[in-house]
């Protein structure tokens, strides 16, 4: 993969961007009454309306050309075929295999049929989940399990947590799932206060089984169990683990029969579809978990087989590049108009920023373009009363994805119509804006004096012409949640491929971990800290004094 700046389409897009500088999205609608219909694509139960973008047919055709010139076709094939596309770790990238086990028989990677491994792990998960649900799995005092606590962090935490929350309407009411991630003792302490060790099972999720936060919390959970009266010999009734490092998990004290495997070919942030998703399956049942996988599989098939012009992840990825690299957009917002999706922006933030926050091309040379933007967002309508002001009148261009189910799981009076109306009106307001004349007329009609009109009207001007995508689905279900998350996974891959980076390693997080260990050692021992910067020295001294 080379720098995208060397592709002819990149140069063409540069001059096209200049040609489009004065073209408004609104004028594109006026010119083409069919625009809303034509700028639409469907997959996995979702409809993407991308008509409210600063793009015409020429833009889309150049973006598609860029996608082709970046080698997308081969990149997609290489991922699905299990080539070692994570070159710095020499690994295949096969989260797609995790959702293919039902529909496909074999996928041989490095001599192994990985789908057999996936199927056998799903069967192991099914046994565990069934035993928990039907009361066969019992605690040390022979009581039925009522609470499961997932301990993990990063990819071994956020995806399962966000999906379990998104599937709240499908949750079983006889078992509760809790999540602990932070090494901050308040996280686990506050959860444990709610629980009874006799009826609690902990699932320790860590691909490496070497992550500081997870091991600390797992130790705290075990100490709590012992303290609550669980005999050492019965600890295994209260602990399961998910890891690709079985040896380390066993060494830690996990019973081998309670360890669920995962594999090097699943990246942490792409792992909710593996046994890392066990907390989801516990919360909603295995049938629903399979539906989640089916939804993701539907998006995989769409991504693999659909021409780029109608391919949701490709269209969204290419438009993202258009704004990041040709309009200098530094961030991208995800605004779900659904309470159950309120935490989804955080998962996509982790997925995208850990994947595409890169400064090197695959061959190790430095990038020549901006890469991954800051991904952020939160639920509408809440955000309208907070950060939407900046979306409308701030100086930065922030493309938005609005995400909304057409129906609700909780009809309350007219709430859902109001919610949906707000979603559409935000997209409309971003595009249309308000001119000075409109602001002046509005003020005059409200009885303002000419002096007031002059003073206030400029503050009411909203430039408009701000782009957004609209993603709609009939209903939030395990299937549509699965396809939505897979859509964003592939969008991330599309962008990483265009930028020419490896979206599947994360070397940047290592330095902080190493320095963290060094500083921890200085906090708990008498050390000479002279060689550190003065700011860090002072904070270490303050900590020691406060905790002496
Ligand atoms: O520190 C980053 C990271 O390596 C993530 O990529 C990963 O999901 C997370 O830590 C947790 O890692 P593990 O599952 O090995 O505990």
Automatic annotation (TrEMBL):
<keyword id="KW-0312">Gluconeogenesis</keyword>
<dbReference type="InterPro" id="IPR001672">
    <property type="entry name" value="G6P_Isomerase"/>
</dbReference>
<dbReference type="GO" id="GO:0051156">
    <property type="term" value="P:glucose 6-phosphate metabolic process"/>
</dbReference>
<feature type="active site">
    <location>
        <position position="385"/>
    </location>
</feature>
<dbReference type="GO" id="GO:0004347">
    <property type="term" value="F:glucose-6-phosphate isomerase activity"/>
</dbReference>
<feature type="active site">
    <location>
        <position position="513"/>
    </location>
</feature>
<keyword id="KW-0413">Isomerase</keyword>
<comment type="function">
    <text>Catalyzes the reversible isomerization of glucose-6-phosphate to fructose-6-phosphate.</text>
</comment>
<dbReference type="InterPro" id="IPR018189">
    <property type="entry name" value="Phosphoglucose_isomerase_CS"/>
</dbReference>
<dbReference type="GO" id="GO:0005829">
    <property type="term" value="C:cytosol"/>
</dbReference>
<dbReference type="GO" id="GO:0048029">
    <property type="term" value="F:monosaccharide binding"/>
</dbReference>
<dbReference type="InterPro" id="IPR035476">
    <property type="entry name" value="SIS_PGI_1"/>
</dbReference>
<comment type="pathway">
    <text>Carbohydrate degradation; glycolysis; D-glyceraldehyde 3-phosphate and glycerone phosphate from D-glucose: step 2/4.</text>
</comment>
<dbReference type="InterPro" id="IPR023096">
    <property type="entry name" value="G6P_Isomerase_C"/>
</dbReference>
<keyword id="KW-0324">Glycolysis</keyword>
<dbReference type="InterPro" id="IPR035482">
    <property type="entry name" value="SIS_PGI_2"/>
</dbReference>
<comment type="pathway">
    <text>Carbohydrate biosynthesis; gluconeogenesis.</text>
</comment>
<dbReference type="InterPro" id="IPR046348">
    <property type="entry name" value="SIS_dom_sf"/>
</dbReference>
<dbReference type="Pfam" id="PF00342">
    <property type="entry name" value="PGI"/>
</dbReference>
<comment type="similarity">
    <text>Belongs to the GPI family.</text>
</comment>
<dbReference type="GO" id="GO:0006096">
    <property type="term" value="P:glycolytic process"/>
</dbReference>
<protein>
    <recommendedName>
        <fullName>Glucose-6-phosphate isomerase</fullName>
        <ecNumber>5.3.1.9</ecNumber>
    </recommendedName>
</protein>
<feature type="active site" description="Proton donor">
    <location>
        <position position="354"/>
    </location>
</feature>
<dbReference type="GO" id="GO:0097367">
    <property type="term" value="F:carbohydrate derivative binding"/>
</dbReference>
<dbReference type="GO" id="GO:0006094">
    <property type="term" value="P:gluconeogenesis"/>
</dbReference>
<keyword id="KW-0963">Cytoplasm</keyword>
């Amino acid at each position: 993969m080379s720098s995208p700046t060397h592709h002819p389409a990149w140069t063409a897009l540069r001059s096209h961007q200049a040609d489009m500088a004065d073209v408004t999205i609104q004028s594109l609608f006026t010119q083409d009454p069919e625009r809303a219909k034509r700028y639409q694509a469907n997959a996995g139960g979702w409809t993407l309306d991308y008509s409210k973008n600063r793009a015409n047919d020429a833009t889309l055709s150049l973006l598609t050309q860029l996608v082709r010139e970046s080698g997308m076709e081969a990149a997609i094939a290489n991922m699905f075929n299990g080539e070692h596309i994570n070159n710095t770790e020499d690994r295949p990238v096969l989260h797609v295999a995790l959702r293919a086990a039902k529909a496909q028989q074999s996928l041989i990677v490095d001599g192994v049929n990985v789908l057999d491994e996936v199927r056998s792990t799903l069967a192991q998960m099914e046994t565990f989940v069934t035993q928990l649900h039907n009361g066969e799995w019992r605690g040390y005092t022979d009581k039925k399990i009522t609470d499961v606590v997932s301990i993990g962090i990063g990819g071994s935490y956020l995806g399962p947590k966000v999906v379990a929350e998104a599937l709240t309407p499908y949750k079983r009411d006889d078992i509760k799932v809790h999540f602990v991630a932070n090494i901050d003792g308040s996280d686990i302490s506050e959860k444990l206060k709610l629980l009874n060790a006799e009826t609690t099972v902990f699932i320790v999720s860590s691909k490496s089984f070497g992550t500081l936060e997870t091991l600390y919390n797992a130790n705290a959970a075990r100490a709590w169990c012992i303290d609550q009266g669980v005999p050492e010999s019965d600890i295994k009734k209260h602990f399961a683990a998910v890891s690709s490092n079985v040896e380390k998990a066993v060494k830690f004290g996990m019973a081998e029969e309670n360890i669920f495997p995962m594999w090097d070919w699943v990246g942490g942030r792409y792992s909710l579809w593996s046994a890392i998703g066990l907390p989801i399956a516990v919360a909603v049942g295995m049938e629903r978990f399979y539906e989640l996988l089916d939804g993701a599989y539907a998006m995989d098939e769409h991504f693999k087989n659909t021409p780029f012009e109608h391919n949701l992840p490709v269209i969204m990825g290419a438009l993202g590049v258009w704004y990041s690299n040709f309009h200098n957009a530094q961030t991208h917002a995800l605004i779900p108009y659904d309470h159950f999706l309120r935490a989804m922006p955080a998962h996509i933030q982790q997925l995208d920023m850990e994947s595409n926050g890169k400064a090197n091309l695959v061959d190790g040379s430095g990038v020549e373009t901006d890469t991954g933007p800051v991904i952020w967002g939160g639920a509408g309508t809440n955000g309208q009363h907070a950060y939407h002001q900046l979306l409308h009148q701030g100086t930065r261009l922030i493309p938005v994805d609005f995400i909304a189910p057409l129906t609700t799981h909780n009809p309350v009076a007219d709430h859902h119509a109001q919610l949906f109306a707000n979603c559409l009106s935000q997209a409309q307001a971003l595009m249309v804006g308000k001119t000075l004349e409109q602001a002046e007329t509005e003020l005059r009609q409200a009885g303002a004096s000419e002096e007031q009109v002059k003073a206030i009207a400029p503050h009411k001007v909203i430039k408009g012409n701000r782009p957004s995508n609209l993603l709609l689905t009939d209903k939030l279900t395990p299937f549509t949640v699965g396809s939505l998350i897979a859509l964003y996974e592939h969008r991330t891959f599309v962008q990483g491929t265009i930028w020419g980076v490896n979206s599947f390693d994360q070397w940047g997080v290592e330095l902080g971990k190493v320095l963290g260990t060094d500083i921890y050692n200085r906090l708990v021992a008498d050390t000479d800290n002279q060689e550190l910067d003065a700011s860090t020295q002072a904070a270490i001294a303050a900590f020691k004094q406060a905790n002496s």
